[in-house]
Amino acid sequence: MNPTKTLVLALFTITLSSAAQTPTLTGKWIVTSDYFGTPSLARLTLEQQGAKLTGNFNGDKLEGTVTGNEITFTSKDEDGGSDTLHGIWKNGAISGDIVEIDSSNPTHPDHFTFTAILAAPLEHPTPQRHDFTPTVFRRQFSPLYPPVLTVNPGDTIHTTTVDAGGTDEHGIRRVAGGNPQTGPFYIRGAQPGDTLVVHLLHLKLNRDYAISDDNLDERVLGSHLAILAKDNHNNVRWHLDLTNNLASPEKPGDHMKSFTIPIRPMLGCIATATNPGNAPPGTGDSGGYGGNMDFNDVGEGATIYLPISNPGALLYLGDAHALQGDGELNGNALETSMDVEFTVDVIPGKRINGRRIETADNIITMGLSGSLDDAIKEATSQMADWLHQDYNLTPSETAQFLGVSAEYHISEVADRNAGIVLKIAKSKLSKLTNNK
Questions:
Q1: What is the second-level CATH architecture of the domain 3-118?
Q2: What's the mean per-residue pLDDT of the chain?
Q3: Taking the CB of the first residue and of the last residue of the chain, which one, N or C, has fewer CB atoms within 10 A?
């Protein structure tokens, strides 16, 4: 049981040092608990008016009082569980012990410790531009790596990536393969429960070749094609004509000697670090945090919305592709390195249940799951949430609107998770009446 999700009926008693005056508790707090050796984060908002406390704890309303040096408040939900916190306020922080009673097992309370600190304020000072040259690259979307750069919401970062095999723009191997990432970037004021906004301003290829192969993923192979393609496990190097923005195989077969195709740079990976209570996923994986999405609309001009699970968000990006068809059928796209320029922002207090993408023409949700059947369900559910949250559509209206407006594409078949995206044209959204 994770306390960030199950601490729903809370009775807090915080005993202050008798030599200190009662602190001003109004503000947003980040609570870190040691849940049987696993760190877990919770969000707390307090509003103090004299002796009265109001606010919420992980979305549940609370009420309480301040009497002398003691502070007591309670939050409740429908399940009848409870958590009693006893702590000491010292040097701007609260620390102490939690006794948690699970409503399904009330005779066996759990005990663990916690600390709480005031969350950094979300501010938008004059935007700055940062040129960052990476010296290390990470192979997990981990909350435990130190940030490589701290920026403010509204700032712009220019940096570089290596390719999926760990090779940089000079052809030098810098790190083991597996989609190594640039980052993490720390965004001041970003807190768990917020949404990170990443605007991809410019994606520029910085070398004249890319690596792929001639394999086809097993998800797309019927038995006959599998026999025909049984020897297709060869690396294929592509030439990138950066002047004319064209790609072509360097050693083409007889029927592809004249073949060229326009390049369309994209990032295979964008992610926020996962919750510290979970094992950090590798950079070849994907989930609600983003990750190795391999969707070819994540290119220049796109805006990506990601849920935040850690203070500072801890943003990773990498896995540059010069071009990728729908599905990444070969298991690799045209893997290369890239210069990336992007701007970050934060939507405070807005928690989304997965990845969202916006382009000039569409809003897009993405389902990622072990099967395409489950992926299409996830993409549809996420779009329904978006339409309800931002456009106030009822379930009936959502079904009617999706029935005539939805466009589905297979984004990924080559990884552990298959991907399906659902696009809605903004021209169709503009005809809705938003009564919010």
A1: Beta Barrel (2.40)
A2: 91
A3: C
Question: Residue 13's beta-bridge partner residues?
Answer: 72, 86
Check: CB of residue 318 under 8 Å from CB of residue 336: no
pLDDT tens digits for range 341-392: 999 999 998 989 899 999 999 999 999 999 999 999 999 999 999 999 999 9
The DSSP letter of residue 361 is S
Q: For the chain, give every residue range classified as CATH 2.40.128.120.
A: 3-118
CB atoms within 10 A of CB 289: 26
Within 10 Å of residue 366's Cβ, how many Cβ atoms? Answer: 27
Q: Are 155 and 344 contacting, i.e. CB atoms less than 8 angstroms apart?
A: yes
Taking the CB of residue 430, how many other CB atoms lie within 10 A of it? 7
Give the list of residues 6+ apart from residue 419 with CB closer than 8 angstroms, or none.
286, 293, 294, 295, 366, 367, 368, 375, 410, 411, 412, 413
User: Tokens 């877990």 label which residue?
Assistant: 40
Rg over alpha carbons for the chain, rounded to the nearest Å, is 25
Q: What is the DSSP string of 309-351?
A: -STT--EEEEEEES---TB-TTSS-SB--EEEEEEEEEETT--
Q: Can you tell me the distance from the alpha carbon of 433 to that of 391, in angstroms, rounded to the nearest whole number? A: 8
Q: Which amino acid type is present at position 363?
A: I
Q: Are 105 and 147 in contact (CB under 8 A)?
A: no
In this predicted structure, the answer to whether residue 96 has a pLDDT above a threshold of 50 is yes
Q: What is the CATH number of domain 137-208+262-360?
A: 2.60.120.580
Q: Averaged over 234-263, what is the pLDDT?
A: 96
